[in-house]
Structures are given as C-alpha cells and as structure tokens.
Design a protein that fits this description.
alpha+beta; SH3 type barrels; 3 domains; five-stranded antiparallel beta sheet; 8 helices; 12% strand
Length: 248
C-alpha cells in the first residue's frame, strides 16, 4: 500500500521538477536569442519573463487537471509540446520584428526612399508579428491556412520590393568596385592624371573611387569615370613604373 501511495507522489514530484527545468531552459534560451536580436537587455528580460509566466501557467493548469481528473486539462498535457512551440514562435516574432523593421527602414532610406520607408517599415513589423501569431495559432490547432497564405504573399512581395530597391541603389557602387580592377591596371599612387575635367596626383586607390590631390585640395573620382571618360596620364611616378614591371 505504501508503494501504491509513493508512486503517484513520485510522478507528481517528477512532473514539477521537469516543468521547472523546461521553464528555466526556455526562459534562458528566449533571453539569449532576444539579446542577440534586439540588443536590448531590458526588453530581452521582459520577453523571457513573459515566456516563463505563460509556461508556468500552462504547467499549473495541467497539474490541476491531473490531480482533479479534468479531461480538458489532461488533453492540454498531451498538447504541451505544441503550446511550447506556439509560445516560442510568438516570442521569436516579437524579437525579430524590430530588427527587420530597422533593416527595411535603413535599406529604403539609403536608396532615397525615406517617405516610403516610413510606411513599409512599420508594415513589415506588424506582418512579422501577425505571421508569428498565425503560426502559433496553427500549432494550437486553430485553422488559419488562408490567412497565413495571404500574409506570406504580402510579406514576400515586400521582401522582393526591398531586394529590388537595394539592388538598384547599390548598382552604381558595385559597378565602381568592379571598375577598380581596371583602374589599378592603368594608374598607380603618385601618377599625375586628368579625367572627367579633373586633374591631380593620385594619392589613393579606393575600392570604389580614386582620390586626386591638387593645390592642397582632394577630390574623389568614381572608378567608373576611368572607364567611360578619356584618361590623360601626364606623369608617371617612378615607384609606380617599378611596380608595373614587377607585375606578373
């Protein structure tokens, strides 16, 4: 009889210990991810506490159901992995949304779409939150298939628009970087050159531009100008000529 009594007690203690362990591990994991994504210790702590609170509530309700024989709570026990996944999805969405909003805003602002960025960035934030909530609801068995597909289509469209905006905005920069290889083959630091109506001594060969100095002033000329305009080399630097002879 003592063994019959000890077994339920042992199961109860094991359940409580396991629940506390899972809650602690998930709380630490959520805080770690939130700090890395948000870069804000305060918000990460709040997210971690909220997650721990939800998990503890679920565990307590499940325990009450086990003790009282409530079938609804027992079913909740078997659905616990889905509940944990749903909570993590919401937490992850809340953590990622601000970072993605900032990325979209800075990307669009960089290519001259400041006003557009002020509209798209908040929309991206709420789309990520909404998608996380919908995925969490799906884990809990709530039918959200149509809404999920709609949100994914809108979100995908925004990402394509962002990619195109960034691509167009960086096209000139990429062209200048590629042209830098040609520039390095025809001029070197110390040469006196003239291009695009600007003349001076080459003081630096950058990834995207060449710095020329003349009469105490310096000017940056994009590498692409050396491809499209006539380049006049008025004087070669002695060190530059030596370097060219040594090139394979």
């Amino acid at each position: 009889m003592l063994a019959d009594t000890a077994q339920p007690v042992f199961v109860l203690v094991a359940y409580v210990v396991a629940a506390l362990l899972v809650t602690a591990v998930v709380g630490v994991l959520v805080r770690y991810v939130a700090v890395r994504v948000l870069g804000d210790e305060g918000r990460a702590r709040q997210l971690s506490r909220a997650t721990v609170g939800v998990l503890l509530l679920v565990f307590v309700l499940t325990l009450i159901g086990r003790l009282t024989g409530d079938t609804a709570a027992v079913r909740l026990l078997f659905a616990l992995p889905n509940v944990v996944t749903a909570v993590l999805l919401v937490v992850l969405g809340v953590a990622i949304a601000p970072a993605l909003r900032g990325l979209v805003h800075s990307g669009l602002s960089r290519v001259g779409g400041g006003g557009f960025a002020d509209i798209v960035a908040p929309l991206t934030y709420w789309l990520v939150i909404g998608l996380a909530v919908l995925l969490a609801a799906d884990q809990l068995g709530i039918e959200t298939g149509f809404v999920q597909r709609l949100v994914l289509i809108i979100f995908g469209g925004l990402m394509v628009a962002l990619a195109l905006a960034l691509g167009l905005g960086t096209r000139d920069l990429i062209g200048a970087i590629v042209a830098g290889r040609h520039v390095a083959a025809i001029i070197a630091v110390g040469d006196v050159v003239e291009v695009d109506g600007r003349g001076g001594t080459v003081v630096a060969l950058g990834h995207a531009s060449v710095r020329l100095a003349q009469d105490g002033t310096e000017v940056e000329v994009p590498n692409t100008r050396f491809l499209h305009d006539t380049v006049v080399i008025r004087q070669r630097a002695a060190t530059a000529a030596t370097q060219r002879l040594r090139r394979p």
